[in-house]
Amino acid sequence: MSHTTPEGWILILGFVALTALIARPMGAWLFAIYEGRPTFASYALGPVERLLYRAGGVDPAREQNWRGYAVAMLLFNIFGIVLLFALQRLQAWLPLNPQGFPAVPTPVAFNTAVSFVTNTNWQSYGGETTMGHLVQMLGLTVQNFVSSATGIAVAFALIRGFARKETAKIGNFWADLTRITLYILLPACIIYALVLVFTGVPQTLAGSVVATTMEGAEQIIALGPVASQEAIKMLGTNGGGFFNANSAHPFENPTQFSNLLQMLSIFALGAGLTWTFGKAVGNTKQGWAILAAMLVLFTAGVSTAYIAESAGNPIHHAAGVDPAGGNMEGKETRFGVAATALFAAITTAASCGAVNGMHDSFTPIGGLIPLFNMQLGEVVVGGVGAGLYGVLLYCILAIFVAGLMVGRTPEYVGKKIESREVKLAIIAIAVLPLCMLGFTALASVLPQGLEGLLNQGPHGFSEMLYAYTSAAANNGSAFGGLTASNPFWASTLGVAMFIGRFFIIIPVLAIAGSLAAKKQVPAGPGSFPTTGPLWIGLLAGLILILGGLTFLPALALGPAADHLAMIHGQLF
Predict the structure, then answer these.
(1) Which of 115, 204, 414, 510 is the most exposed place for a label (fewest CB within 10 A)?
(2) Cα–Cα distance between 537 and 61 in angstroms, integer?
(3) Residue 392 phi, psi dihedral angles, 5° rounding
């Protein structure tokens, strides 16, 4: 029996309403950068932008075709992987390392470098016990900015594909990357970090302090530049925590206000980009329809998780343990069941990865929702940029299905969708399940994969499935329990993160180039409307059906079997 509360439902529905409310102002800000127009930050940062162009030999007015855009994006990100790997391996000899941390082991350094460059921020280590301040700031925090900017830049390129006509150009990657970083992420995070400092998040270059407990024992309390990393990790849907406990740590998330602010910031840019898309194609209703489909899927998922976690464990109820409460195992008592279930749904719907609870301790159905959110492919709002270009892939497939139903060549926002776009969309969508399920199958039969598990049976299988799902979906949250720092897990998760990021981006950019070269086709009497409830239902249904058909067998072996075992009195 579920023990949900009115306060819990008000929190969830209020959050959905606030997300819809901030979509337009965030979208307008993003649209100004998309068009290259000045913003309030241009007066202060314009000289910095021009200096960066001169230093890099970049002409921002010289646009690229999709191949040039893709090559520039790949070169920049591969260089980022190499640089971050080197910083970690040289950490022992670098300054701003007051704790004297040694070099990060090679497998973990590789995993972490790929992780932060791909906007995944999977962490196989404890941040406050592994990384010095210089690596945290120059390595991890910098990549938090530029990996987020890369995702938004790719979304801008795809938007141009839909908005432009009869051209091979989809923008300039270097100009997009620079402007997004300077005029959106940097000013927003400066303000955000100051607000976090006001709520109690530390921002210091000190190493740690020693406190004496009530019992007279000494406790070492780690400190560092937390607020600056916390701001971009949330706004940029990165997710990597300065502390191992992530947003359950009081230094990362001290109050109920900071908790709400962090949840809203995770969705802010992703929701705003849907409005930007609608504005760019000349019909903001198109963007609202996409956001509506996202929020329908999100609301259904978070409601299921909240009900499951409020019901708790029937084995405990039968034993008379907490018969009137929910499942508080693995949850911060400051936030409770509703806020933790909401945070879990937000962070996995948005491919952020920050957590304020332990997903491994959720009930099987409560843990299934974060898992399934990621398996849908970063489209339920999704990561910054990645959510929009991911859902537009589904829009292409949905309009293709609609075209079959009305018996004419499908078109979407004025562009005919033909076989090339459909094939590329299918290739991009197929990357994630192949990666998630393929690596899980490999780990489940190899001794190196099995030795990392904490639990046996279906719960142990869920640990493996969640790890590769989180990696390939560039989410970064962990189910918990899995020891992922050994060479097998660190290496294979790193490869999964790389594939899950760039093997989707390349087809997306190819679609952008193909669409930009086409003529604009005006809507006619036979056009399928893509702004009303029918379209919203079709899009949400297609996402659910594809996700369900693809992952149902794996989910049956993991969370579903775990749930059936639990109601029959068996735990793993």
Answers:
(1) 204
(2) 40
(3) -65, -30
Neighbouring-strand partners of residue 357: 331
Predicted local confidence at residue 121, as pLDDT: 86
pLDDT digits (tens, 9 = 90+) for 195-213: 999 999 988 877 777 777 7
pLDDT, residue 115, reads 93
The residue with tokens 């908790």 is 259
CA angle 391, 394, 398 (to 5 degrees): 135
296-315 per-residue burial string, b: 16 or more CB within 10 A, e: under 16: bbbbebbbbbbbbbbbbbee
CA 357 to CA 339: how far, in whole Å? 10
Return the number of other C-beta atoms located less than 10 Å from residue 241's C-beta: 27
In which residue ranges of the chain is pLDDT below 70?
Answer: 1-2, 127-128, 316-325, 406-409, 572
pLDDT at 1: 56
pLDDT at 263: 95
Q: How many CB atoms lie within 10 A of CB 58?
A: 17
In our burial notation (b when 16+ CB lie closer than 10 A, e otherwise), range 398-431 reads: bbbebbeeeeeebbbbbbbbeeebbebbebbbeb
Q: Which two tokens stand for residue 312?
A: 């708790």
Contacts 24+ apart (CB under 8 A), 72-78: 72/173, 72/174, 73/150, 73/153, 73/154, 73/173, 73/505, 73/509, 74/502, 76/146, 76/150, 76/173, 76/177, 77/117, 77/118, 77/147, 77/150, 77/502
- The residue type found at 391 is V
